[in-house]
């Protein structure tokens, strides 16, 4: 009558272990840094592996130019580049975590997992 409980306990243990690994992964991704740049290095953007923007650096000559439209374009380009690198880096880390296995929905689950929520 209680044969199935062993399977449930095993599944719960596996789930708990996976949660611990996801927590570790989020902490590791938070420490990774990726940089995007545009305009020959006039604009630099730093993001972490959790795809959060950490900083912007803008060359003073660009600020002095008063070319608002160019600054906006360069900020957008550098931000997109930094975020793309962060996504690629996170995917590489997750591939290591899963041993290269393609687990359906894992990327989405990890993307939604936020230990600070």
Automatic annotation (TrEMBL):
<comment type="subunit">
    <text>Homodimer.</text>
</comment>
<comment type="function">
    <text>Binds to DNA and alters its conformation. May be involved in regulation of gene expression, nucleoid organization and DNA protection.</text>
</comment>
<keyword id="KW-0963">Cytoplasm</keyword>
<keyword id="KW-0238">DNA-binding</keyword>
<dbReference type="Pfam" id="PF02575">
    <property type="entry name" value="YbaB_DNA_bd"/>
</dbReference>
<protein>
    <recommendedName>
        <fullName>Nucleoid-associated protein V202x_47730</fullName>
    </recommendedName>
</protein>
<dbReference type="GO" id="GO:0005829">
    <property type="term" value="C:cytosol"/>
</dbReference>
<dbReference type="InterPro" id="IPR036894">
    <property type="entry name" value="YbaB-like_sf"/>
</dbReference>
<dbReference type="GO" id="GO:0003677">
    <property type="term" value="F:DNA binding"/>
</dbReference>
<comment type="similarity">
    <text>Belongs to the YbaB/EbfC family.</text>
</comment>
<dbReference type="InterPro" id="IPR004401">
    <property type="entry name" value="YbaB/EbfC"/>
</dbReference>
<dbReference type="GO" id="GO:0043590">
    <property type="term" value="C:bacterial nucleoid"/>
</dbReference>
């Amino acid at each position: 009558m209680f044969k199935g409980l062993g399977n449930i306990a095993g599944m719960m243990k596996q789930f708990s272990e996976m949660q611990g690994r996801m927590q570790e992964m989020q902490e590791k991704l938070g420490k990774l840094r990726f940089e995007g740049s545009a305009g020959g290095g006039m604009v630099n953007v730093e993001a972490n592996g959790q795809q959060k923007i950490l900083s912007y650096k803008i060359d003073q000559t660009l600020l002095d130019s008063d070319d608002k439209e160019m600054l906006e374009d360069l900020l957008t380009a550098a931000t997109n580049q930094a975020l793309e690198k962060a996504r690629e880096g996170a995917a590489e880390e997750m591939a290591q975590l899963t041993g290269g296995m393609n687990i359906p929905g894992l990327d989405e689950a990890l993307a939604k997992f936020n230990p600070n929520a």
